[in-house]
Write a structure and sequence with these properties.
- The protein is of the alpha+beta class and 195 residues long.
- It has one domain.
- Helices cover 54% and strands 16% of the residues.
- Helix 1 packs antiparallel against helix 5 and helix 3 runs antiparallel to helix 4.
- The two termini are 22 Å apart.
- It comes from Paraflavisolibacter caeni.
- This is Copper chaperone NosL.
- Keywords: Membrane, Transmembrane, Transmembrane helix.
């Protein structure tokens, strides 16, 4: 790979450091009685936002109390990000297009695994309700959306990447664009050699 591609990859990899300081995901709920909305921010190692208010509301419909202990991922997410930073810098130093492709494949697999993990958590959280809860609606679940919008009783629930999540998406897109550029450049070199 050329030097510019390698520098771009290094910048994209180092950009992942921002995920240590920015929330990755946001769950936002709004209802007539909460016109200002209720945010829950998911970081690499913690949850912030109006978690206490959300827990108070969820108690009435039998949902589990949200706590950081529910997320064993908080114990190792920082190491996964560090691994991707290290591999990205290794790609930049070596200039290996094959290693860049491996990096992209691992990024996609990790992203899919994260969404599946989030879906499973949301399913369990929204379906496994306390049968003695004050408010019960037969055959109704409260699973939050993975991405996008969902109506949950009188609440509109939204789920989408926060700033740190967008950093990951942008870094991956940049690396993919570099790989495509270098792959096309390699094909053009082979064509030129034939003539």
């Amino acid at each position: 790979m050329n030097i510019i591609s390698r520098i771009v990859i290094a910048i994209a990899a180092l950009g992942l450091i921002a995920t240590y300081y920015l929330p990755l995901w946001n769950i936002y709920m709004i209802a007539p009685q909460y016109p200002e909305g209720l945010n829950m921010w998911i970081w690499l190692t913690k949850i912030t936002g109006k978690v206490d208010v959300i827990n108070g509301l969820n108690h009435y419909i039998g949902m589990k109390h949200i706590s950081e202990e529910m997320f064993p991922e908080f114990g190792f997410m920082i190491y996964i990000v560090a691994f991707f930073i290290l591999i990205g810098l290794t790609v930049a130093i070596t200039g290996s297009r094959k290693l860049l492709f491996t990096y992209l494949v691992l990024s996609v697999i990790t992203g899919i695994a994260a969404l599946i993990d989030y879906y499973i958590w949301g399913y369990n959280y929204g379906h496994n309700l306390d049968p003695s809860a004050p408010i019960q609606i037969p055959n109704f679940s409260y699973q939050p959306p993975i991405i996008g919008h969902k109506k949950l009783l009188n609440f509109d629930a939204y789920s989408y990447p926060a700033a740190g999540g967008w950093v990951v998406v942008i870094a991956t897109v940049i690396c993919f664009a570099v790989w495509l550029f270098e792959w096309q450049r390699s094909k053009n070199k082979i064509r030129l050699k034939k003539y």
